[in-house]
Amino acid sequence: MINASKGKQIVVFLDYDGTLSPIVCDPDRAFMSDQMRAAVQDVSKHFPTAIISGRSREKVYSFVKLNEVYYSGSHGMDTMGPAQKNHSYDDKYHYKTVDEEGNEFIVFQPAKDFLPAIKKMLVEMMERTKNIRGVVIEDNMFCLSVHYRHVKDDEDYERLEQEVKSMLVNYPEFHLTSGKKVLEIRPSIEWNKGHALEYLINNLGFDNSKTLLPIYIGDDTTDEDAFRVLRERGEGYPIVVSSKPTKTMAFHSLHDPSEVLSFLIRLGRWGGSNSNQG
């Protein structure tokens, strides 16, 4: 990677759960360590860095708490990045915002039209699952995550799956995907983590030439869309986080978040020793 990066601009993209934090039973307690936060902060000093997660953008920010990092939540359906001068954005799905330090950012929300239906589904899903023990429903703003890690019985899981599918019959503009012990209800628009990756690269000033070297690290099936984009672009390093052999579009792998930490520490140190980077 060091040899391939000569004369190029490294840009770092990171998943959150299972990558920067361990997978935990309670999704609200998926905290990243102080060491990991420091490593991500160090990397972001030398290379543009973005976190692309299925969580809501606000939730990921509450975990990471770094203003130097760009955030893309809800599988890329809620992306915040630096406002580029002399760059026009459509008013329907973009708006400008300012952080506490007065820096201007662009927020892009391609699924904005689906918000009323998502709020309605959230209420209905909570009602439908209130008697199924162990279900946790997470409102990720532009998608709903139905966690079943604590659902013990197969019968209860089958009932949960049936309730989700039964509800979706009335919402044909949404579809169901699955991840690690989670069912996710998402708007049926052509948008995923791969699209978010391309959007950040092409629209937020990360790259306007052929000198880009993107690194994307993620652990879940939803990250495969981003890995595929890097393969199709023929550039960069898609890296899967997995403790066992897995079918993936990634070129490389790290075993777990502890190895991600080691990788980011080394990347930050290398970036700091090369003034021509970042």
Question: How many beta-strand runs?
Answer: 13
User: How much helicity do the residues have?
Assistant: 25-40%
Radius of gyration from CA coordinates: 19 Å
Judged by helices, strands and strand pairing, the structural class is alpha/beta
Distance between the termini: 15 Å
Mean model confidence by pLDDT: 91
User: How much of the residues is beta strand, in percent?
Assistant: 15-25%
Biggest sheet strand line-up = 5-6-4-3-2-1-11-12-13
Order of helices and strands: EHEHEEEEHEEHEEHEHEEH
Number of helices: 7
- Low-confidence segments, given as residue ranges, are none
**Major sheet characteristics:** 9 strands, mixed
What is the overall silhouette?
globular
Can you give a write-up of this model?
There is one protein chain. The chain is an alpha/beta fold. Helix content is 31%, strand content 23%. The chain contains seven helices and 13 strands. The strands form two sheets. Strands 5-6-4-3-2-1-11-12-13 form a nine-stranded mixed sheet, sandwiched between helices. It has a four-stranded antiparallel sheet with strand order 7-8-10-9, with helices on one face. Helix 2 (57-64) links the parallel strand 2 (49-52) and strand 3. The longest helix is centred in the last third of the chain and has 16 residues, at 257-272. The two termini are 15 Å apart. The mean pLDDT is 91.
Structure keywords:
7 helices; alpha/beta; globular; nine-stranded mixed β-sheet; 31% helix; 278 residues; four-stranded antiparallel β-sheet
